[in-house]
Amino acid sequence: MLAMSGEEGFSTAAPATTISDSALFIQACKLYEAKNDSAAAELFFKLAKEFPNSERAPEALYFAGVLFYKEKMYPSALSAFRMYAEQSPDGKQINEALHWTGMCYYAMERYREAIEAFDEEISRFPNSQFRRDALKFMGISYIMIGDTARGNEILRKLVEERSDYYQPEYWFSRDI
């Protein structure tokens, strides 16, 4: 848009443009499809921040968290998962968001916070598909903070529940 600017002539300043939440979501998805995960994560996170009331915001936060985690950007992933949990405490991906919150804390060697996050996950979702991994990382976290008795107790119970869980055949026969 051109506008008169006094005696100096015309100004070529472009008007501020706005982009919709749907357009941001589509751009983020295209970046993801192009395997540009960190840029996609940033755009998903931007969508959630700029459009917190959008129906796409929770999904965008979850996707941002997963992609940040994949890129080992753990503080950013943690922010996205915590925001998801705060904004969508009953959202369809809350179980996963709580699990990844614990995994972020674990990856950042914040073991006490990892224990708390995994404990919340297990308390809220005792039959979750992530339960075994949450218990495993919770047990290891206890060991890392020096409570080897509690850590070993959790890991021992985990093995007793399913003795083949730690056998190579179990892992190699699964589609991981």
Description:
- The protein has 176 residues and is mainly alpha-helical.
- It folds into 2 domains: 21-71, no CATH class; 93-176, Alpha Horseshoe (Serine Threonine Protein Phosphatase 5, Tetratricopeptide repeat), CATH 1.25.40.10.
- It has 9 helices and 2 strands, in the order ββααααααααα.
- Strands 1-2 form a two-stranded antiparallel ribbon.
- The longest helix is centred in the N-terminal third of the chain and has 14 residues, at 37-50.
Briefly characterize the structure.
With 176 residues, the chain is mainly α. It has 2 domains: 21-71, no CATH class; 93-176, Serine Threonine Protein Phosphatase 5, Tetratricopeptide repeat.
Number of helices: 9
Which fold name fills CATH's third level, the topology of the largest domain? Serine Threonine Protein Phosphatase 5, Tetratricopeptide repeat
Question: Which class of secondary structure composition applies to the elements?
Answer: mainly alpha
In the CATH classification, which architecture of the largest domain applies?
Alpha Horseshoe
In whole angstroms, the N-to-C terminal distance is 54 Å
Portion in beta strands = under 5%
- Give the number of domains: 2
The low-confidence runs, each spanning 5 or more residues with pLDDT under 50, are 1-16
Gyration radius, in Å: 22 Å
Tell me the overall shape: elongated
Give a short account of the largest sheet: 2 strands, antiparallel
- Written as H for each helix and E for each strand, in order along the chain, the element string is EEHHHHHHHHH
CATH homologous superfamily of the largest domain - what is it? Tetratricopeptide repeat domain
- Number of beta-strand segments: 2
Strand order of the largest sheet: 1-2
Percent helix, as a range, is: 55-70%
CATH C-level class of the largest domain: Mainly Alpha
